[in-house]
Amino acid sequence: MKKRTPVSVIMTKDVITLNHNDNLEVAEGLFKTHNIRHIPVVSGASIVGLLSYTDLLRISFADAIDEDEQDVDTVVYNMFTIEQVMAKNLVSVSSATTIKEVAEILSKKEFHALPVVDNDKLVGIVTTTDLINYLIEQY
């Protein structure tokens, strides 16, 4: 295993993003369509937050029983904006950050994704799943 391998080797480069003005129904659609769990939120070219599928589930009634779940979720989603639900105090890394450094950050924090930012521009996202897949490839 190479110790100085940059995160750019394992990060997702074609990042699905949300605009900070999008609504939570758009977010849910992206999560489900692309089978992802984290979406960076941008304003222009700048990243302003990160929305996780867990954040969305926290405010929804996804497990409602005997209700028309779609209608319940729509009502709840209309009560909040993406900016109210997303994580705002982001930790990010550059594409030159080593995979080891990324693993250390993720192992100490309570989140599972890091935006990859070069020169104030979002260039990728790296998740714990990316790290696990990298480790599997090493064996």
Q: What does it look like?
A:
- This is CBS domain protein.
- Residues 11-67, 86-139 form the CBS domain.
- It comes from Ichthyenterobacterium magnum.
- InterPro entries: CBS_dom, CBS_dom_sf, Diverse_CBS-Domain.
- Keywords: CBS domain.
- By secondary structure, the chain is an alpha+beta fold.
- The protein has a single domain (7-138), classed as CBS-domain (Roll).
- It contains 6 helices and 5 strands, in the order E-H-E-E-H-H-H-H-E-E-H.
- It has helices at 24-34, 53-59, 69-77, 82-85, 99-108, 128-138; strands at 18-19, 38-43, 46-52, 113-118, 121-127.
- A 3-stranded mixed beta sheet has the order 1-2-3.
- Strand 1, helix 1 and strand 2 form a beta-alpha-beta unit.
- The mean pLDDT is 88.
Topology:
Elements: E1 18-19, H1 24-34, E2 38-43, E3 46-52, H2 53-59, H3 69-77, H4 82-85, H5 99-108, E4 113-118, E5 121-127, H6 128-138
Parallel strand pairs: 1-2
Antiparallel strand pairs: 2-3, 4-5
Keywords: CBS domain
Organism: Ichthyenterobacterium magnum
Pfam family, one: CBS
What is the overall pLDDT average?
88
Which radius of gyration do the C-alpha atoms yield? Answer: 16 Å
Q: Assess the beta-strand content as a share of residues.
A: 15-25%
How helix-rich are the residues, as a percent range? 25-40%
Query: Strand sequence of the main sheet, in spatial order?
Result: 1-2-3
* Number of structural domains: 1
Structural class: alpha+beta
Corresponding CATH architecture: Roll
Topology order in helix (H) and strand (E) letters: EHEEHHHHEEH
Biggest β-sheet description: 3 strands, mixed
What's the CATH H-level homologous superfamily?
CBS-domain
* Terminal Cα span: 9 Å
CATH topology: CBS-domain
Give the tally of β-strands: 5
Organism: Ichthyenterobacterium magnum
InterPro entries: CBS_dom, CBS_dom_sf, Diverse_CBS-Domain
Keywords: CBS domain
Protein name: CBS domain protein
